[in-house]
Amino acid sequence: MHPVLARKGETVLLMGNEAIARGALEAGICLAAAYPGTPSTEIVETLAEVAQYTKTYVEWSVNEKVAFETAYAAAISGVRSLTAMKHVGLNVAADILMSSAYAGVKAGFVIISADDPGHHSSQNEQDNRWYGFISHIPVIEPSSAREAYFYVKEAFKLSERYGHPVILRSTTRISHTRQPILLEEDIPIEKACKGSFERVIERWVLVPGHARKLKSKLMEIWRKIQMETSEPFVKIINPGMKTVVIASGIAYSHVSEVLNLTGLDDKITVVKVNMPVPLPRKPIEEVLSTAEKVLVVEELDPIVEDQVKRISLEIGSTSKIFGKEYVPLNDELSVQAVYDAICKFLGSCSPQRWESIGDIKTDPPIPPRPPVLCPGCPHRSSYYILKTSLNRAGFRNVIYTGDIGCYTLGYQKPFETQMTSFEMGGAIGIGHGLSKVVDELVIAIVGDSTFYHAGIPGVVNLVFNKGRAIPVVLDNSVTAMTGHQPHPGSGYTATGEATAKILPEDVLKAVGFETYVINPLRVKESVATLQKALEEFKKGKNIAIVSRARCALEVMRDARRSRVVLPVYRVDPEKCTACQACVNLAACPALVVDPNTRKPVIVEDLCAGCGLCASICPYKAIQVSNTPSSEWEKLW
Amino acid sequence: MKERFNLILSGVGGQGLITLGRLIGRACILAGRNVTIAEVHGMSQRGGSVVVHVRIGEGESPIIPSGAAHHIIAMEILEAGRTARYANKDTVMVVNDLILPPPLVKYPSREVVVESLRSKIGKFYLYNAEEVSKEITGSPISSNIALLGFSLSVNPLFEELIKKADIERAIEDMFKGKSAELNKEILHRSYEAGRSRLGG
Ligand code: SF4
Ligand code: SF4
Which of A482, A484, A553 to mutate to test the pocket of ligand 1 (most atoms within 8 A of CB)? Predict the structure, then answer.
């Protein structure tokens, strides 16, 4: 049984995202919709896994805006719901976010924004607490994975109390941390899953006349939330001291550890903030009335700090307020960073507490290990095929615009086939724009999931406005990067039901492209097809390419399960001349060069049998070393 | 608050670090300990550096400061070198005798990294976890459990917090039937290997 389904009173090990899922289930949600994105993915993934048992409708939508709309629709008809996305995903859904604050909800509605301070898997580290201000939607920020479980329930309560959406802001360090969680309640068996839509036109139809009135109501709710909330959104620990530390979200966990380690906990008042936007007014006023100096510790932007300063000004407090003078404005906070900040603020303790042996020095130094395409990843072959055919067709200095997915790793050597990567679907729009202003050929590479998410409007525009970029869809029929969630080309839904399969080539054809579908496992054949396609392009046709093979991780998993033997390759040291062509062109992690002979060796445990290296080797030194099952190719 | 026991797990994506973290977490629950397990990894599915921070004891902050690790388990030699900064002079380090160089780069040899770690870390152990795993299961997939078994027996501070029996029960919870049996056998064998390495 999934740990998320455990009974009340049990202690289960849950990661922050699973804890959020469990909390939401306890709160009685009946619908959840999301688009996967690290670090938010496991929230809806967990809900999908248990959907059958919890009788919850769960979907992977094509993008965050659609996911938001789906969940919001449930909430305005009285069904509790949740939508989850990574911080940048909220940008995609920002439009409906703003409107949802005007119209409000009939049942609890929580938007989870999983932010990524430290850029672990994102193009930026934007602080989504700002969205609370722009939209006038309160933002709840837990301090740990365990608290995420508790505060998601509080978020639902708050949402229902005010008939208003609520944002729960998690961060990577909460979403991806596991803690034992003592379950406080069972998941309710009975819950409201049937909504009813009330036809209150002036609420749901945001024409200016209606919106104006709704905005006044919104301002009233906003003020109320500021004035009426305190515990559990703000807690004052050890009140009445002259020195105060205010900490929001995860920063509180670091602060509490530092104060414990330094034995300062009984000399300082600590204000634990779990609703940074809007900051509950009364408890802050209370603290400021006796404080002499205050340090605000929060991750990224000075959101709590600015509000504290403003409240201080308004009530004429004389406390000295510090924050970003001592606490970094970028990157994740840590015990170390908070320790340093508090030391500086107090002007006392010495900044070196933990004595590291330091980095070790070796010659050559230990190389960085950025993520790489998996052994057997079909993208590796697709890139090789693309570059080879473009080269043969005489295209030089090709510009490759790129997008978001595993294939972004193609920016690395030796491929260098991702020269831009801004946001979902960006490859196509940027590619189109570039094609209008440069002489070189532009290839716009997008993954299948990204194509559905935000690529389709781009390809429509490309044809309509006569751009000359060539869209290439790398199709592995799944959202691979985030852990294999289904999408409209997968043929099944979040909960595993069979459904229509919408193929990228059909969409591309409908839009007006002559579309070529290749199998990247067949290198020679694909190069020939692409050369033909490029000739058509030279004649002025709009062409598009779909390169289709499944994600190697899924193929290997299926092979294990169905006991299909995949080919395993081996380098014949007799034939190998150590020319390095295979290593340099394929850059497969399963190819390791023997430092003595300079001849590559294939790590058998890693080889997925794609055969790219074998097709590259000019001396035919790489060959299949086992007897693969006859039907192995069908798995790809 | 007593200082928490800080354990670093490091290696390459796909080596089973996340599973190892979960297993230790489960064992902590069985042993009645509080724990936080933070997974730090990059963007893709595989092949990048992965560091899991496990902190046993009361407290919520998930990341271990540089120099504050009591124990480090590294599943690959280059990654062991990379995590040296978490170590202080008292840290115990257990390293899988395996080197997996990233493609297309120059890298130091196994001997160079091992020597450099050995010279700085008082309690440094190199252990061939793949060998045990392959012998028992036919694949290197359970090397993670072998390193855990070995670690437990060479670090009394660690064993004080969770017992081998807690890990055995956690294995029973997380794996089914035959695979649970094989993993327990790996745990046992590696634990004994650690014992004999201590010379006891
Ligand atoms: S997860 Fe799949 S698609 Fe992503 S790099 Fe690995 S094999 Fe390629
Ligand atoms: S391409 Fe062939 S000959 Fe050249 S190094 Fe690779 S295996 Fe050896």
Answer: A553
